[in-house]
Write a structure and sequence with these properties.
homodimer, Aspartate Aminotransferase, domain 1, 3 domains, 12% strand, globular
Chain lengths: 533, 533
Amino acid sequence: MASRKMSLDDTTNHTSNRYGENLAKLRGYRRDHSGPDRPDFSTIYARELLPQGSSELTGKFLKEVVDQLIEYIKQEQIPETKVLDFHQPHELREKLQLDITDKPVTLEQLLTDCQETLMYCVKTGHPRFFNQLSSGLDIVSLAGEWLTAAVNTNIFTYEIAPVFTLMERVILKKMRDLIGFEDGDGIFAPGGAISNLYAVNAARHKLAPDCKTKGMQSVSRLVMFASEHSHYSLRGAAAVLGIGTDNVIPVRCDQRGKMMPSDLESKVQQTKARGDTPFFVSATAGTTVLGAFDPLNAIADICDQYNIWMHVDAAWGGGALLSKKHRSLLEGVHRADSVTWNPHKLMGALLQCSALLLKHDGILESCNELKARYLFQQDKNYDLSYDTGDKAIQCGRHVDVFKLWLMWKGKGSIGLETQINLVYDLAKYFYEKIRDREGFEMVLEEPEFTNICFWYVPPRMRLMKDAAEKKQRLNQVAPIIKARMMECGSTMVGYQPLDDKVNFFRLVVSNAAVRRSDLDFLIQEIERLGKDI
Amino acid sequence: MASRKMSLDDTTNHTSNRYGENLAKLRGYRRDHSGPDRPDFSTIYARELLPQGSSELTGKFLKEVVDQLIEYIKQEQIPETKVLDFHQPHELREKLQLDITDKPVTLEQLLTDCQETLMYCVKTGHPRFFNQLSSGLDIVSLAGEWLTAAVNTNIFTYEIAPVFTLMERVILKKMRDLIGFEDGDGIFAPGGAISNLYAVNAARHKLAPDCKTKGMQSVSRLVMFASEHSHYSLRGAAAVLGIGTDNVIPVRCDQRGKMMPSDLESKVQQTKARGDTPFFVSATAGTTVLGAFDPLNAIADICDQYNIWMHVDAAWGGGALLSKKHRSLLEGVHRADSVTWNPHKLMGALLQCSALLLKHDGILESCNELKARYLFQQDKNYDLSYDTGDKAIQCGRHVDVFKLWLMWKGKGSIGLETQINLVYDLAKYFYEKIRDREGFEMVLEEPEFTNICFWYVPPRMRLMKDAAEKKQRLNQVAPIIKARMMECGSTMVGYQPLDDKVNFFRLVVSNAAVRRSDLDFLIQEIERLGKDI
């Protein structure tokens, strides 16, 4: 702990809080340069905006907020800007004026609140933010989300969301085409976990339609299969749906994190021999940690043979379908019954944007409709097949399609392909730089995707003889370096243990802002922050 | 059909498409008045924006989008602006350039796409839009959503959402205080249906914690209760959770749409006598159609006696807790185990914003955690109780709190109270205007909430003797008037049948933009569009 403290003192001066400085400048600008055009927001309250108040003032207030946001976006792209200005929760709580009072605060105070919020937010679009599968900030997608907010509607009927309903159809069709589904259906859901839940629910409904009315007591024991490295939301779906997490059988992975079809088949056979019903296999296209792609054709063969619903969780890897160079990783995906695909990950759309695509038309509706005719009237003046309310588990549903539609149109499929190939190349560049570098050890050689998993071994651990002790100490290295990164705010990269492997870093490149120099920086920063451990 | 057509021809000229005109103006402005400062967006592509391109251009593009949005917001507030410019799906499909191509389109084309989208969107913030429980456009909340989009993060860990995590705590505590929970927990969920699902899942987990791992087969038959007029999402939750919709027992309502405690008690007793397990009662505070409030204290007494989880679905009515004048409608809500409350309804926050509040701390986590340590590491450098990932069914979770926090702070609790009292007063004004007006018949006398339900009876039906024929014809009146309203775009109000009542209008006032003159207009418009039926 002492050495960590020392190291932090040593490093924090290396990265000045440029964003903090710029915000201070911006605030000063607001106070000092309020020309004749700028209203004195310190005497104005929200009630003076539309709808009751002035439309001119409304425009000026919104533009001032947007000026702040544009400044934030620009600063975020400067490599030397801090990725975050970290504080412990109790410290941050004291810095911010979070409490709501009975009395209103002025618009000036709200502008200050926005500024302070921006100061302490993590800059997920920063070129040195490598922490999540979702990162980056696509400007056109942002414009789309701003429009979506201004329109403020629900996408459950054509009646109140005519344009977005049509766009959702176009985009879902486009995604199905890329998968290779000739027909089918789909829906945007609030995140990949819920998309996966929709899939399991649809599969259960196909097998046992009575379950919807009579419950799981009417069905024999249902069993699902997913690899050891699959996303935890499959177990989550089993818990929610009343299937039970014990009935999600983990299938073994090979050395590269891919599901082993032989293990799947033998576990399916065991399940049947027990008298239980195997009904759902989730293959993963792009696992969370290693970025592994399960062998879809071999899994599809087993699903065909045993008449099991095949789902592909391509939340992370789905975007690769846009790349001629990389789409073969998902070979066989067209044989699936359903696919989860999150455009907010590799494609770079804003959060949230997740779709479930189905090969089968009609099942979403049959599974989820509750004939709530007081909401979804059947005697309206247009073709009611455009209403999506009866397909959804939600009632009101947020419009997630527009930000994707606008971005996709702005880049074209070719532009998205270029971007996806770029992040692949960057990940490969990083891998090649560290593969033989002293102090770096790869978790996975020749990764197929943009996840690069590795250990950093500090100098004094490199020659350690006692393997058990080395392992135990190595487990602490990534958390210490990560904490130091966060405290000096220079970069962020994730870490985690996996199976018998102790904590290792997982770099993800999914942000179009990343350049080679940012990856070089990450290597140096890990060495700088970890060399004394 | 002939008379309908005639009437439409007759009326469409009465409402000019002012918004269309203004958009055309704006477009002309863009083309003709592009001064030296305005880039020629028709030669510029998305790839020339940040992160690879110019920050100056990025700012200019975003500002141009915002100019369009501000123009939309201003136009939306003008009563004479069309609420919608209705087209049948196939017609609208032809008007819009929805298809995605391989090649990118220019930024100019994207700006045009935004404009066309805005033209054909339904103006849910328009003072004459009375169609949904969620309407209006709060400017401060909009600013909050714009900031949320620019920050583009997930609220599943403090690590990447430090400020929003703290805000969520503050706001959930504030909401629990208003309910009267001394302690407890809560979470923002994607809409009220999912909040209700969280509640049923938590109640099941409290009763039968083994269900999470072993599934519903490990539990005796579970039975839920909700009134005939409760929201369909309770049945939806039962379907998803594997409880089955047959095990949601509808409890009878009195004449005013309130759950009858005596019927609840006898149905609970019948269930127990059958050997099944009553475990969940959902009382409604503000039903969707009539706006009825179930008698919470009487229901709580029964839940206490039979040891049943009491949920209050206050998605719609929760906002009334902010009004000293109206909060007694929810008397007894503090006795609930859980409450769904959607600030995107009565409080006017932007979509989506729904919270589930719980009296019990710990249960959300125990129910939903799956110990995915590869995502939610336990050796991080801060107090991990701030991470919410293990409480959620979703993995990534959209930040829904900021738009609410900023709006609430800007208005203060007093400002929200004033707004809620105002919409109440407006609804009362409308009720009093139509109560004794010729041709109007009330579905519910002296409504308690801002739902006003009524029939319009066209002149030639008023003296009809044959009650059955009159009823059958009256059933067609609201759909015809609604279709005409949509086709001429002047206003929107919902209709539906309920129980043995044929189609009637349901006016909802929840939009702070509504004035008395807009309600006067609605009455005239219904008469104008319906008099010849």
